[in-house]
Each structure stands twice: as structure tokens, then as C-alpha cells.
Amino acid sequence: MALHDHHDARDRLANVRGAIVKAARLADRDPAGVTLIAVSKTHPVEQIMPLLAAGHRSFGENRVQEAQEKWPGLKEAYPDAALHLVGRLQSKKADDAVQLFDAIHSVDRYSVITALAKAMEKRNRRPDCFLQVNIGKETQKGGCEIADVPVMLKEMRKAGLPVAGLMCVPPVDTEAAPYFALLAKLARDNGVQGMSMGMSGDYETAVMLGATHVRVGTALFGERS
Ligand SMILES: *Cc1c(COP(=O)(O)O)cnc(C)c1O
Question: What is the 3-state secondary structure (H, E, C) of 35-93?
């Protein structure tokens, strides 16, 4: 039960925020340049409320349908809450995603770019878009190939998508730092500012290597069942 009470949620939030500030200072960065996205996937509204009550406003979900079930009511209560889609997006869900989300971190192929452009036109809503890069060259993972980053960014801009930056999910059970450093290099080489990288196990490392958005679930909400 302790996991669910407000006091505990506040403590976890304070701990993660504190660690971000510390990592940013070590790297001579302004902590305000790092957005903490609380990834609330699988967790019910009752577990999200304490963080909203504590003043937190950036959240992430990985499935459009789950977000549609949880977030319309929360957004009504907290209109300034920003919702980030961090999971894979199917083209047929682009319209729903544009309607509900304020940022999409998983743009990774032409069909999704086209579908998002069409949805943005129709809804007159333009969520920030991150190009997801398959940084560890894993066949099962989402993300475009590293070599395709320039052409994909060009296509996103041509389609009118607001390009916020690059996003990656490094291979599990390996040291993440080299992958974060590689994403930072790709961002620099391609002149984009945003870097969505770092999760519960490695967000401090990500901040030290330049992350502008860290996506933290477990460290804020506890283990997912
Ligand atoms: C679930 C998820 C996270 C959060 O993972 P934790 O290890 O629980 O912090 C971050 N990014 C993506 C893309 C996710 O799917």
C-alpha cells in the first residue's frame, strides 16, 4: 500500500528530481534544460494523481489505447499536463495520437510521418515529434537506422512535423553510456536540440551526456506487474 500513498509518490519524485539536478550540475548543465517524463504505463489513474497533486506535469504512456482510457479525465482536471507518447506508433493510430498527445517520441518510418502529417492537418494540432533511432541496431526494436537519420529528419520537416529531436532506447543489459553518446553525436551532426534518452536505470548518465528529456517509470511508480 505504501507505494500508493501521496507521501511516497512525493518522496520518489523529489529523489529523482534531486538526482537530475545533481547530474546536470556535474555536467555543467542547467537542470531546467531537462524534462522529467513520468512514464505511467500500466499504472492506474489513482497512482498518477499523487504526482499531479505534487505539481508534476509531464507524463508518458506507451500505448495510445491505454492513454485514451486514462488521460482525457486527468487532462480535464490538469489542463497544463503534457502527455508524451513513448511507445511504438501504428499509422492507423496516428489520428488518435495527435488528438491526445503533446509529444510523440517514436516517429521512425515514412508511413508514420505521412499519417501524422495528415492527422495534424485535420486536427490542427502539432505535437512535438522526436525521431526514434535504432541506436543498438537491434532487429526487434523500433527506430530508424542510424544512417537514415538525415533523410528521415528531412522528410519529417518536409511533411510539416515539428522536429523536437532524437530519441533512443539502448539495448537492455548493456552499458547505456556509449549509446547515449552516439545519440548526442547524431543530434549535434544533424543540428537538432532535443535528446529523449535515459530510463530508471540510467537517467543520470543520460543527463550527463546531454539528455533534454528523460523517461522514468519504475523509479517513480515502482515495479510494473
Ligand atoms: C517503459 C518505458 C520507459 C520507462 O522505463 P523504466 O525503466 O520503468 O523507467 C521509458 N521509455 C520507454 C520507451 C518505455 O517504454
Answer: EEEEECCCCCHHHHHHHHHCCCCEEEECCHHHHHHHHHHHHHHCCCCEEEECCCCCHHH
For the CA of 201, the closest atom of ligand 1 is 7
- Ligand 1 pocket: which residues have CB below 6 Å? 39, 41, 62, 86-87, 169, 199-201, 215-219
Atom of ligand 1 nearest to the CA of 62: 15
Find the angle CA(78)-CA(80)-CA(83) to the nearest 5 degrees. Answer: 90
Q: Which amino acid is at 47?
A: Q
Q: Which residue has a Cα nearest atom 6 of ligand 1?
A: 217
Beta bridge partners of 166: 131, 195
Q: Is residue 27 classed as helix, strand or coil in its secondary structure?
A: coil
User: Which positions ≥6 away from 142 have C-beta within 8 Å?
Assistant: 88, 106, 108, 132, 134, 169
Cα Rg of the chain, angstroms: 17
Q: To the nearest whole number, what is the mean pLDDT of the chain? A: 96
**Which helix (H) or strand (E) segment is 103 a member of?**
strand 103-107
Best probe residue, ligand 1, of 42, 86, 138, 221 (max atoms within 8 Å of C-beta):
86
Distance of CA 159 to the CA centre of its chain: 21
Among 33, 30, 29, 24, CA closest to 193: 33
Q: How far is the CA of 162 from the centre of ligand 1 (A)?
A: 23
User: pLDDT tens digit string along 82-132?
Assistant: 999 999 999 999 999 999 999 999 999 999 999 999 999 999 999 999 999
